[in-house]
Design goal:
heterodimer, A: 204 residues, mainly alpha, two-stranded antiparallel sheet, 6 helices, B: 185 residues, 9 helices, globular
Chain lengths: 204, 185
Amino acid sequence: MNECTDIEIREMLPDLLHRTLDAGTRKRVEEHVASCEECTEDLEVLRAVKAAAVFAPTIDVNRVVGRIAPYARITPAVEAPSRSRVVSWLVAASFLVVLAGGGSLLVVQQKDSPGGYAPARPPQTIIVVPAPINQPAKQPTTNVTTPGSTGTHALALASGVETLSDNALRQLMSDMNSFDALPASEPEPVMNVDNGDTSDQGTR
Amino acid sequence: MTPGSEIRPEETDMELIRRWKAGDGRAATRLVGRHSQALARFAASIGEREGVEELVQDTFVRAFASLDSFRGESSFRTWLFSIERRLMLDRRRAERRSRETVPVEESDKVSEYGALDLLIADEAQERVRRSLEALSPTQREVFTLRVQQGMSYREIAEIVGSTEGAARVHYHNAIQRVKEFLSDE
């Protein structure tokens, strides 16, 4: 049997079966089928497939309609806060917590300085330097610089701690317990502190 | 158009939907009567053995409950078929899950084939049914929608969530496989 290459006609065979073609197209398809062995065979198969589908249970229309609820127009519900809005609020709240923590740390540092609160003292800049990826796990380094002040590599809060006696350290710890401005969460561990002994040094 | 006025036989689905929304319950009867048997045939032809009537009922209940979301971009018939198809897929998933936990009993198999006997009238139709079962699920859907329901490739693509071109390819592959199956038997 020669294979029919008229794809358009072959695709229209189900339409011929369902009598959905206009008169002109139907005549053209019928003429083709009359002279094409493959399309004749296809049409026979399609008839058999169509006939095999007639045995379906009869649907009780009234029973189906009885289950359909009367029409009720859908009114738009009050818009619930979107997920993205909630996430935005969470991000903003987290940012505020971080700011409050940083501010508390500054207050503690200033309190610890010999002159107590020193309004004229320039603010410190805290830079966190992440450890290189390919090195062994290491704590991130934090530089605390105070432009214009003399600097040694020590945390301002713990400046000169290594020279204190045990009793002085205990006193210091006890004093620290009385601070009421400490952040609720522990600050990041500080590895390296630059007190800004180079006056022109800004941030790294 | 008022709920009390007569429904003309040639009224379109969209006109009937408008009537139903206006409170004319007869419009729902006309719509169900117009499409229910086609939905039942489609379900039966793609292997739904039991609960075809319940499936058709559920299709209409769901369709009428969400008529406000039907914008008329496709025909109402196409929309109904796509709802029925989704319900069938949900059912099959649920059946697969229950089969994984509950072993199939002999009585289940008997009732399954008993229902099948009602659908298949004679040996020739049994052969055709087996040939359709040899098709992939998508091929079978496309082929039965095209051949048994007389739907266009565009309508089929909307129902099965595919493209017109893909529907054509599925149709050609399906008819080749059916012919091969029937000539081998």
